[in-house]
Design goal:
Elements lengths: L7 E7 L13 H6 L4 E7 L6 E10 L15 E6 L7 H9 L7 E5 L15 E4 L12 E3 L5 E7 L3 E5 L9 E11 L6 E7 L2 H9 L4 E9 L8 H5 L6 E8 L6 H12 L8 E2 L2 E2 L5 E5 L2 H22 L6 E4 L4 E2 L7 H4 L17
Parallel strand pairs: 16-17
Antiparallel strand pairs: 1-2, 3-4, 3-10, 5-10, 6-9, 7-8, 8-9, 11-13, 11-16, 12-13, 12-18, 14-15
Helix pairs in contact: 5-6
Length: 357
Amino acid sequence: MDGDAVRVKWSLLEADVGEPVNFELNGRRVLSRYSQSLSVRMASKVMDGDAVRVKWSLLEADVGEPVNFELPFDEGEVRFVVGSGGYLPGLHRLAREGVLETEPKVFDIKAAEAFGSANPDLGPIDVPASAAPEGLAAGMVVQLQNGMKARVTRVTDEVFTIDANDELAGKDFKVEAALLEVDPAASKIETAHFALGCFWGGELAYQRAQGVVSTKVGYTQGQAESPSYEEVCSGSTGHTEAIQVMYDPSVVSYSRLLELFWERLGDSRHLLNQVGNDRGTQYRHGIYWLTEGQKEEAEASMAAAKELALVQAGKTIYTECKASETFYDAEEYHQQYLQKGGQSAKKQASETIRCYG
């Protein structure tokens, strides 16, 4: 807005050829003389931790046309915190490099910065035809016993072939993108920490919430520094799996994030060190506040939940409500895990969230 101080990288170009001007700028006379024939290009320098608003779309790499399949997240105008996950890694890189401008431009995105490489463990895999359900045909999507979905790519008299990789894995793309707004150091964004058992499903639930701009999964409330997933799973570090939610309080309130926490937790609130079938101290559930304002709301929410549980069923709630301790990022392969597996992270998506390993 007017009055804001900004730092920009800019150069003056000839309007007809787009080359740098070949004279020294010397004040009002030169600028006014060429004001109708010169253009100014500005690029905003963005750093990790900045919140950005970007307008973008995904294009086929070979023809530059919009892709004709549904993405697991939103296109158009979106917001995210650079370096904190969400959307394509390539979008984060483009923002960091300062190449995004206010007018849309097209950029190449390699597979590694799009939907990653195909995992050979997920397919293609041949299955004996004797195991095929009646009517199975190539192009169908089947659900596996572990909850994952797989595409049927081939059916013969001997075998049928399935592939549980994201259909987009291993492919290069182009993106058309424009930088609409930068919030340095995400000054308008607040952070909340929740533990809901296995962090995959809880993260996806928060990704879908309006006003949530970025999420991470990790480990908190433990003793060891920078624990690994294996160490946390052993129960020896004292950590619980947790979700870091970065949100715009002008769009979604902390109170609404608490409501979503209780909705997602369900009856597991009455279980000690357990959510669903996941058992152990690393799966204990909790609300971990970061500010005094969050503390007041979290404690009020906890008191209301306990009173309701006691009145309705005479049950105890084992959910923790404590000050947040150090949050350690989980390994990269855990981040946005279900989104990477093809489940929708679009705002207000309503499909059932399926957790699988």
